[in-house]
Queue: 4 jobs
Job 1
Amino acid sequence: MSRFLNDRLSALAPYTPGEQPQDKKYIKLNTNESPFPPSPKVIEALSEREAKSLRLYSDPDLKRLVGAIAESYDVSQDMVFCSNGSDEVLSFAFLAWGSDGAAFADITYGFYPVFCDLYGIDAKIIPLNGDFTVNADDYMGLDRLIVIANPNAPTGLLMGLSDIAAIAENNPDNIIIVDEAYIDFGGESALSLIEDYDNIVVVRTFSKSRQLAGARLGFAIASPELIADLNRIKFSFNPYNVNRLTAVAGEYAIKDEDYFEHTKRLIISNRRVLTDGLEELGFSVLQSFANFVFAKTDKMSGEDYYLALKEKGILVRHFNKDRIKDYVRITVGDKGEVKKLLAATEEILKEALA
Ligand SMILES: *Cc1c(COP(=O)(O)O)cnc(C)c1O
């Protein structure tokens, strides 16, 4: 870093994304991508004609994409905001509504504290219960932006909608962001609360359940006034934040409901196989509502298990952080990947005991 960088950015610790190794071929179960390709309809839509249209800027209003999302979730178009990954939606949200500070759990998505550092927002860190559940009572009357990942990452645990409604009710002058990156894998969405609570913003992504992590597409659904706030930032920052190919991919992905349902069901059923398999091998596995499981064994440390899997060509995520050091987070892959993960784990445990 240079001596010219401003003090706040010099002090900031940027987010560390999961490894994306380009050298060797791993079974990649470390960043919660889908093991399946995008919908065939998406691939068909990304035609040569579409590639040629790249000479033109994308539609700054993203009308077709926004229209398709609005239709799919049965909301009006002025309640949808699209962005370059949900990371960008979250970034804009912290900037828009975080000036009185932000509050979030000690164990949650690692980008939230980075946004606070980036924008100079005071962060109030609220510890999860001993079993990693959220105590909703800790979130009443906080007088600041509240950010809840539901299901939470990296635990996979789900919070009930009545708790989210109570938090919104008890913080009427502050925004509650519900980051639903993983909601499609079995949770109940806070979308149903948006009509009753004008301070809830639901944030979603195409990265996990719609096979488009590399396209970078996320969105928010909220009241038209809140969506206008996000658009103010986008149009002060980069009006073309979603590129043409991604806008087309997103439109066709959201329209292909059969493929979405089919791939989602496969992930949920593979999650069962993965969870059962790990438990048979003596692991404790948190009850996951996401496309990953959070698991630990008392036979070895989380880091050793992570390294042993890497040695065998399987990447998972280990967080070197208090309270969760013993755990690894394993993305639910396809059937073959789950089988290989379980076989490798069995071998590793045998080698450890030998
Ligand atoms: C993956 C993830 C995101 C970011 O998703 P992108 O749309 O790929 O930027 C946001 N929040 C949580 C909790 C996530 O796990």
Job 2
Amino acid sequence: MSIANNLQDFNSKVPNTTTLVAVSKTKPNQAILEAYNAGQRIFGENKIQEMVDKHAALPKDIEWHMIGHLQRNKVKYMASFVSLIHGVDSFKTLKEINKQALKHDRSINCLLQVKIATEDTKFGLEFQDVSALLTSSDYKELTNVNVIGLMGMASFTDDLKQVRNEFKTLKTLFDNLKSTQPQFNTLSMGMSSDYEIAIEEGSTMIRVGSAIFGARTYA
Ligand SMILES: *Cc1c(COP(=O)(O)O)cnc(C)c1O
């Protein structure tokens, strides 16, 4: 199957209320262009430098999403163009994004990454920290970030019931926060292995890499 075929297949399966982020990390510009020529405009990367290089080389109407863990000292390199940052897991990082957004006189859309997996290798805020952050007075002073929702990664397991439960708890948190956060419109959950379950559990944005571009040689 070609990248274009894979994308077509995806777009026919996925409801049009679900946004597809094509995760192009480690993949060459040629592969991204192939997806671009098939109509895909949203791409996800997990390393800031790699995304900066690809942004410079590729068509300017691509929307770049940062899906990886953030190194605060590198936020400045993507602040002029990044369209959504999925992996915000501390107030300090949010504050740095705000600072860099201000320099470019723009507002940057962000998602708070919530820890839903049982493994402790996954980054993310604990449930109670999410609402604490959103209601803090420090947060209210950040004029140039727009937190539009949540992101989560399920456990790496064959137990699909567990995966479903983890997505369910994130969706519940999302719905609860919505009452005080009317700007919440994005729930980013689901990857190649579990996007179908994620969509059933209310995901509005899936991040799919290998099912579109083929297996990666490194993570
Ligand atoms: C790599 C990555 C994905 C995509 O993974 P696939 O299994 O290739 O679909 C999704 N989300 C994050 C945060 C990733 O780092």
Job 3
Amino acid sequence: MGSTRAVFLPLLLLAFQSLILSCCSASPKGPLSLIENVYQLGDSTADAGNLIRITGSNSEDKVSARLPYGETLGKPTDRFSDGLLMVDYITRALGLPLLNPSLARNRSFEHGANFAVGGSTVLNSSFYKAKNVAVPATNTPLRAQLQWLRSFLNSTCKSLSDCAERLRRSLVIVGEMGSNDFFLSFLQGKSIREYRNNLVRSALASLRREFPRATVLFGDYYGGYQHILRNGSHLGFDRSSRLKACCGTGGPYNVNISASCGSPGVPVCPDPSRFISWDGLHLTQEAHRRITEFILDQISPGLIRAT
Ligand SMILES: *[C@@H]1O[C@H](CO)[C@@H](O)[C@H](O)[C@H]1NC(C)=O
Ligand SMILES: *[C@@H]1O[C@H](CO)[C@@H](O)[C@H](O)[C@H]1NC(C)=O
Ligand SMILES: *[C@@H]1O[C@H](CO)[C@@H](O)[C@H](O)[C@H]1NC(C)=O
Ligand SMILES: *[C@@H]1O[C@H](CO)[C@@H](O)[C@H](O)[C@H]1NC(C)=O
Ligand SMILES: *[C@@H]1O[C@H](CO)[C@@H](O)[C@H](O)[C@H]1NC(C)=O
């Protein structure tokens, strides 16, 4: 294929690097304006309402559908933050509407879909079961989400060539993803060393299988996070609470898993935009905005080269 457009994927893997996958081609007229569809795969850092629609997910999983989640937007939007996520800032930068969660019925998927599900791992559940590590009820690892993407394209493209044409004008974002793989093993006292290579190899293999003609690039989500952590006060974050959750209580980090954000009586800071961490696990809208800025700056040259 000639020039490329489309696809990048920040994917949080063990080194907390992002993985950017750049695909396909088109006539060069300003790379970003040529992207018409975005497909997101990932975990709660990108979930815009899939987890709450999966039966079997428990009420704790549904906090994203209740205040204070979403408070910066004036209402809960099923996102695990006070407001928008990185994927929202990316679609906004492309001039596209926010992506609807793929499990929502009767919504528009004209410009792509969000397949991310909170709690998802990169590796198959079978990998964990074999190691006696309990897995979340929602069995939606990267591989399952890729299958959703495949079926989605199969059921919405008019033909193979229509699909190819659409992917040429698409950005596929994978990640941040991989942190749940670590949590699972860590919380259950298993060694995490062996997961490391498995994660990267498995994620890359899946992606290369799925997008054989795509270019895979790495972007640095963790670097973006470090950047705002180190340089927080220049960026408007409150220095004294840079490691504290805005929503939460107790301990040096304002986090207590027995009294987490969204539980009765758990306080919320007056101004989430001064905080990096929203609830101890997820970041604030402002942190998402800043990290997206950082990542877009970083990957733009690669994207343009690929266009
Ligand atoms: C689905 O969306 C259409 C158009 O927005 C609307 O007319 C219809 O009532 C909706 N159906 C349901 C079940 O929400
Ligand atoms: C994941 O599971 C599927 C089917 O259960 C299998 O075909 C695939 O090879 C597995 N992938 C990995 C990376 O283990
Ligand atoms: C695409 O969908 C058709 C009709 O539902 C089905 O028969 C076919 O197996 C699907 N192909 C793929 C590659 O999923
Ligand atoms: C922090 O931000 C300021 C203002 O944007 C910038 O000049 C400086 O280079 C940044 N420092 C680091 C370490 O990123
Ligand atoms: C965490 O919350 C539980 C339940 O509210 C409480 O009993 C416990 O003392 C809290 N721990 C800390 C360190 O604040």
Job 4
Amino acid sequence: MPSVTGDPWLLTPGPLTTSLSIKEAMLHDWGSRDKAFIDMTARVREALVALAGAEETHVCVPLQGSGTFVVEATIATLVPRDGKLLVLVNGAYGHRIVTICRYLDRECVLLETPEDTPNDIATLDDALASDDSITHVAAVHCETTSGILNPIEEVAACVQRHGRSLLIDAMSAFGALPLDARSVHFDALIASSNKCIEGVPGIGFSIIRESVLETCEGNSHSLSLDLYEQWCGLESSGQWRFTPPTHVLAAFDRALVEHAEEGGVAGRGRRYSENCRALVDGMRAMGFETLLSDNLQAPIIVTFRMPADPRFDFEEFYRRVAEKGFLLYPGKLTVAPSFRIGCIGRLGVGEVADALDAIRATMTELDITQPGSAAAE
Ligand SMILES: *Cc1c(COP(=O)(O)O)cnc(C)c1O
């Protein structure tokens, strides 16, 4: 079945398929300095802090832009210019944090594991024990490059034991995978409007420990990316410092209501897990192979190895599946040729079954009966 708006289903890591009611929430105009919009901003900030179980300890600072903008802003604001960040890397988003440090001129070390291997706690423990100059650690909860779930609770416990500050890129996990500030110690958790909360793109946010943020005046090299100043503006007037993405916030406000109606993190996580199970089972039944074993797979996006058959051309496969109403996602791995299929957005096992039908029909058209996998390069 096509979507209500006739658009293809987005089996991607975001932007995602959104509900009709979330799209409809944008059919109004708001004055950015008017009470209705100020109230909306406060409501969204409070709902996000509550989702993280952080009402007692943290504040939510939203920022205009895509997820990367707020990752960069969080590092710029929280890591002082003479600080040093250790980055746990097992994919492109960890590498992006390293690149951000280079731009911001923050000293940085990386601890890397392969893209199909979770963060290694023992080497993190050693690194923090042997280098006193490391002030902060950055970790990626679900590394969207492969779809791997990193052991964020253990990372947080290790960083806390060493008395360092943890910044979590939870962009593709927040809202679907549990992460509670009362049990996981972090100073910042970063995510955006258009992933598991199912809003439209345009807002990132950082949930920051208030006692830490209070000390961050003057750290940022950038006016527009200064989350300390953004926070002060919001606290003093309830307003965003610069033109806010009004329609995006209205959609996000509505998305948070629908997230709660679905049963919050548990409900959303359950639907995505069902989508993921159906997708993996259906693809394996066709002979496709997943990169990750099931115990490492987050129910967000699944990486499939590129079939070995030389007649399989991803561009052609993508085009034919898209014609049938489903947009897949290219791979981003360095360890093996691959492509990805997302489980998130406003879709359920019915849409996954339809997508599997479209993929099966495409494989028949291409006359490929045993996809298997290409040898790793
Ligand atoms: C999507 C994503 C980001 C941000 O990407 P943008 O394209 O800037 O929105 C950052 N980290 C992770 C893990 C992501 O999945």
